[in-house]
């Protein structure tokens, strides 16, 4: 199993940008597709973006399409989420996970977008 640590969240105003990172440990990171999810208080965790193991294909939730970009650097065992044109409704804790997801989720990183 891959171990994952999210970072890069923060407080930004609407229209701003953040770049999230997901650092993976282990020797098999490149074997997995990777997802970003997010969860706002009182809501279920929702899918944000996916990238295939080799980085050739990406998929996005309609709510973030055109604003967010998922990428990965397999040589550095790191997943990224570039978040542009942020909106208050993007406020959530952001998590990364493998495809299929591991049995547990990390602490995530908090993104707060003010209006």
Question: How would you characterize the overall build of this protein?
Answer:
- The protein contains no helices and 10 strands.
- With 115 residues, it is mainly β.
- The strands form 2 sheets. Strands 2-10-9-4-5-6 form a 6-stranded mixed β-sheet, with no helix packed on it.
- Strand 7 and strand 8 form a beta hairpin.
- It is globular, with a radius of gyration of 13 Å.
**C-alpha geometry:** globular
Output the structural class.
Answer: mainly beta
Count up the helices.
Answer: 0
What is the helix/strand order? EEEEEEEEEE
Distance linking N and C termini:
39 Å
Main sheet: strand order? 2-10-9-4-5-6
Task: Summarize the helices and strands and which ones pair or pack.
Elements lengths: L2 E5 L2 E4 L4 E8 L7 E7 L6 E6 L6 E3 L7 E6 L4 E6 L8 E8 L9 E6 L1
In short:
This protein has 115 residues and is mainly β.
Offer a few descriptive terms.
mainly beta; 115 residues; six-stranded mixed β-sheet; four-stranded antiparallel β-sheet; 0% helix
């Amino acid at each position: 199993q891959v171990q994952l640590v999210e970072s890069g969240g923060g407080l930004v105003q609407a229209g701003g940008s953040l770049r999230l990172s997901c650092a993976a440990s282990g020797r098999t990171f490149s074997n997995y597709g990777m997802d970003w999810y997010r969860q706002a208080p009182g809501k279920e965790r929702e899918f944000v973006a996916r990238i295939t193991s080799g980085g050739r294909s990406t998929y996005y939730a309609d709510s973030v399409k055109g604003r967010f970009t998922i990428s990965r650097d397999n040589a550095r065992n790191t997943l990224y989420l570039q978040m542009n044109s942020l909106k208050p409704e993007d406020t959530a804790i952001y998590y990364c996970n493998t495809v299929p997801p591991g049995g547990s989720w990390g602490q995530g990183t908090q993104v707060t977008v003010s209006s």
